[in-house]
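Design a sequence for this backbone.
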């Protein structure tokens, strides 16, 4: 409740962003987080939710997207999630139109891509921007919450992109030639950011071969996306990703980022990592994590404890104090992630 109170106090009449500059994507994330507060909610909290949803509704474009000119997929996906959480039927048409926008945004034959193309099945920030796993996982979650049929072609197309992100050579045959270097998938079961790419860098092997380094937040994003796309728990791709996240289980850092030259690197995207962890482990049905040393963890209790310990004693907010990258130094986004994580991780 203290976290929600912080967000309500920072509201600009149901909108959030820099002073005088409300941001659609941030507002949608905050609205999703405020709806984690159980009903009946405090009057001020519910008022912020109602005003915020109404504002987002005014931002819907003729093509169904919901945004203010930035990060179109993220803003639309976060908006769908916020509207869906409300359970209010008056947003049914808004959600349906936004759903169709996301379906149309996918890189497929409609944009001249075939199944053999590197980015086929992916979704990026917008229609002209390169797809990546982070954008795709957000869109798939939104599509699932919007009621898109489980057997929809969108999910099958997404599986091709997901395969090309995973370091699993049995299902990923991508080879990208870059001068004298060849980028190939590894075999640890984890995932980078996009086919042939990783925000955590590359492992350099003999013979000019580079492997995108797997890291925590994107491997959890892969895991949850595989489930949303219809892969079963015993699917080899799901099994491989599940093994990676358990072997590399930690709540200290976003694993996979080498400390090396940048001591902040392992802390990048920590709240995003926590959120996708809680979602993915819940979707796959893993209640006890056995880490790489053989120790068993009740991850729900541990994650909730870790997140609560990071809350500000002063104002109830959260920030990633070790790395502000990807807006996690912004207490509005940090607090939204924390509340969403706690809701997903609370012991069942």
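Sequence:
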């Amino acid at each position: 409740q203290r976290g929600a109170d912080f967000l309500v106090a920072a509201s600009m009449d149901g909108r959030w962003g820099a002073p005088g500059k409300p941001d659609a994507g941030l507002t949608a994330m905050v609205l999703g987080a405020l709806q984690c507060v159980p009903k009946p909610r405090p009057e001020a909290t519910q008022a912020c939710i109602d005003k915020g949803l109404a504002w987002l509704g005014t931002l819907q474009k003729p093509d169904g997207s919901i945004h203010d000119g930035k990060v179109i997929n993220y803003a639309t996906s976060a908006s769908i999630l916020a509207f869906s959480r409300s359970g209010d039927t008056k947003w049914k048409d808004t959600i349906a139109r936004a759903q169709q926008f996301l379906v149309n945004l996918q890189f497929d034959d409609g944009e001249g891509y075939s199944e053999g193309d590197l980015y086929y099945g992916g979704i990026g920030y917008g229609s002209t921007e390169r797809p990546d796993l982070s954008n795709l996982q957000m869109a798939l979650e939104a599509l699932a919450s919007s009621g898109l049929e489980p057997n929809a072609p969108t999910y099958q197309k997404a599986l091709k992109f997901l395969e090309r992100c995973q370091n699993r050579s049995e299902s990923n045959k991508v080879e990208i030639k870059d001068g004298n270097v060849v980028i190939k998938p590894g075999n640890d079961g984890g995932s980078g950011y996009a086919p042939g790419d990783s925000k955590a860098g590359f492992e350099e092997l003999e013979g000019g071969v580079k492997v995108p380094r797997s890291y925590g937040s994107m491997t959890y994003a892969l895991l949850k996306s595989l489930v949303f796309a219809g892969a079963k728990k015993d699917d080899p791709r799901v099994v491989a990703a599940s093994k990676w996240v358990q072997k590399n289980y930690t709540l200290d850092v976003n694993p996979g980022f080498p400390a090396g030259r940048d001591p902040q690197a392992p802390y990048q995207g920590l709240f995003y990592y926590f959120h996708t962890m809680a979602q993915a482990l819940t979707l796959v049905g893993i209640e006890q994590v056995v880490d790489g040393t053989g120790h068993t963890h009740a991850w729900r209790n541990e994650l909730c404890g870790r997140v609560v310990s990071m809350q500000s004693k002063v104002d109830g907010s959260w920030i990633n104090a070790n790395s502000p990258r990807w807006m996690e130094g912004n207490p509005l986004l940090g607090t939204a992630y924390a509340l969403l994580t706690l809701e997903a991780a609370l012991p069942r």
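The longest helix spans residues 43-58.
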